[in-house]
Specification:
With 80 residues, this protein is an all-alpha fold. The chain has two helices and no strands. It is rod-shaped and about 80 Å long.
């Protein structure tokens, strides 16, 4: 959905541009191109904002592991 909807909107703009070769067709194309790119940008920014949540969850898991084992998950265990 995050790729399909913007592509459909931009494609509709190209279809209108081909069908109507006057100023109204060009204006409709510009409008739909801007709308499609805006939809894509909003999706991109949303995905970027939630990626920080995954990083935070990974850090919390690593801290819990450290509390239980006394070392970080990516460290080699100490040999006795």
């Amino acid at each position: 959905m995050r790729w399909v909807l913007p592509c459909v909107v931009v494609l509709a703009g190209f279809v209108i541009l081909v069908v109507r070769r006057d100023s109204l067709g060009f204006e409709a194309f510009a409008l739909l191109l801007g709308a499609g790119l805006s939809i894509w940008l909003i999706n991109f920014l949303y995905r970027l904002s939630i990626s920080g949540d995954r990083d935070r969850d990974d850090e919390d898991r690593a801290r819990r592991y450290f509390d239980e084992h006394g070392r970080w998950p990516d460290e080699e265990p100490r040999r006795k």
